[in-house]
Fold these 2 entries.
Entry 1:
Amino acid sequence: MKSKHSGTDLRLRKASLNDLSLLRHWDKQPHVIACDPNDDWQWETELVRDPYWREQLIAELDGRPIGFLQIIDPALEDSHYWGDVPANLRAIDIWIGEEADLGKGYGTAMMQAALERCFKKKAITGILIDPLESNLRAHRFYERLGFRFVKKRQFGDDLCKVYQLNREEWNRWNKIV
Ligand SMILES: CC(C)(COP(=O)(O)OP(=O)(O)OC[C@H]1O[C@@H](n2cnc3c(N)ncnc32)[C@H](O)[C@@H]1OP(=O)(O)O)[C@@H](O)C(=O)NCCC(=O)NCCS
């Protein structure tokens, strides 16, 4: 996909074990730790597992890996992290790896590519995200993309704000009628 970011090429590709050292390096960056301090993503295990309810994706900008995206079906995800949620939703996790790449519009391009990917499937009605309550910049980022605040919710040790973007709002946002 050509992003709106000054003619650059933003693509999402499947993450693999070849990305292990890069993902571990990104895990050590303070802005990545701050957005998700209590999770161990267990890359060695998860990068070789391919459950039908999940995609793990690397975003590449002009061929350079810049960030990670995970898209799950929250109703089918095997730890039931999201609890009882309706079918036909998706939940997304996103981060940019290097601090120098923040605030340049790359995250917006990544989310737009992820939202298109999710809503391409006609049955999908909405997308969930769960930034930490303290992650004010992420809240602004999601609100600008059209996400609406749903409720505060405790996930394990993390107090989060749940946001949702429904298909109708996404259509309006993208002027699709
Ligand atoms: C959230 C994130 C993906 C947004 O991507 P981005 O490329 O920085 O965002 P964009 O440049 O497209 O948009 C900039 C907006 O993102 C928001 N933003 C969120 N986190 C930011 C950060 N650490 N630095 C700069 N902007 C950030 C701001 O609202 C900013 O808008 P503003 O200029 O009005 O303040 C990215 O900042 C990031 O990876 N942050 C750390 C990890 C994280 O918080 N992930 C979300 C967990 S739910």
Entry 2:
Amino acid sequence: MRLQPSFDERLLRESVARLAGEFGAEYFMEKTRAREPVTELWKKLGDNGYLGAFLPTEYGGGGQGIWSLAIVSEELAAAGCPMFPLIYSAAIVSNVLARHGSQEQKDTWLPKLAAGEAKIAFAITEPDAGSNSHNLSTVARRTGDKYVINGRKTFISGVDSADAILVVARTGTDEKTGKGLLSLFLVDPDAPGLEHTYVPTAVNAPEGQWMLFFDGVEVDADQLIGTQDKGLRIVFEGLNPERILGATLSTGLARYALNKAVSYVKDRQVWGVPIATHQAVAHPLAKAKIELDLAGLMMRKAAALYDAGSPEAGEAANMAKYAAGEAGIHCVDAAIQVHGGNGVALEYGLTDVWWLARFTKIGPVSAEMVLNYVSEHTLGLPKSY
Ligand SMILES: Cc1cc2nc3c(=O)[nH]c(=O)nc-3n(C[C@H](O)[C@H](O)[C@H](O)COP(=O)(O)OP(=O)(O)OC[C@H]3O[C@@H](n4cnc5c(N)ncnc54)[C@H](O)[C@@H]3O)c2cc1C
């Protein structure tokens, strides 16, 4: 694992930061308020090869590791453009299709995903089965050459701007354990019987979250990804990219907030000197910066282990996600505090990122589920659930 960024890495960071800067937080918030996708930005990311960085070259991707996509995501968030679709479409779904899709599925989707011409949403969470995927109740039943899906999903990001939805559904139950046997399907968002309704949240992101209702939705059998009943393994494989990319939202927003805070405290004077002169102002920012860099180190380690195919990637990705979530919320909180009343004034832009930074402790995987993982797998403690 390199600790010094390579020339290519530095170049990628600078190029993405420049592109993100052309759009910036104002553009992102305008789109968020209008509930419109950031189509222009997405297209430019595709044109520059950033969205397919992690995809095989034969499908128009860059053939790079997860770290390159992580850099893209962190730089965007640091410029005030935190992008959920980089997690669900560019990291999770693209990776699932590249590894487990049929030749036809890969040929149909991967070049478009790499070019920014398509986005695919990812639907696993259900009202009664969030952290516990074994308990999913959305069912897909095979009838002839079709599957028929019934059930509900909630909090699914970007449904209205998705070209397809990767749906995780139960196709059976393991008789020994009683746990669900899961399968993955590519579903047309406009399929008859599929309705979606908006779920208002305080998280500022243009994609928004949606509840999905499946009422006898028919899917051709060739839209199954991989093997029927073996979907859980595929989902678990996708968790490490999800955790590493999830961590980049936290650290990117942390940098966004910290940059604002540093320039504010150097400028603002209330007792005749810049408030940065007071340690009570400077130290929380310094502490937040240390946490941020520690999280960054663990993210780099997780990405290196993942790209090397190491079995230790899971532990590192979980720890990175946890550390980044904590660093993110502490940086944004410290930035708000040193802004005084301006910390909650809308014009300073910190309230725009607060709830997303807070959410990264809950999803895509919650801090508690990470602690469960480390308790059980790292420390060898009994499974608690
Ligand atoms: C903005 C946003 C975007 C999202 N985007 C998507 C998306 O695109 N696709 C998708 O499928 N989902 C999405 N989600 C859902 C998100 O992944 C879940 O909210 C998250 O995984 C937590 O699940 P839950 O809300 O059902 O919480 P629950 O599972 O109900 O958990 C509630 C709390 O209890 C804790 N808890 C539960 N079980 C245990 C246990 N065994 N031990 C310790 N603590 C436990 C959890 O950590 C959590 O703090 C999104 C959610 C939001 C808010």
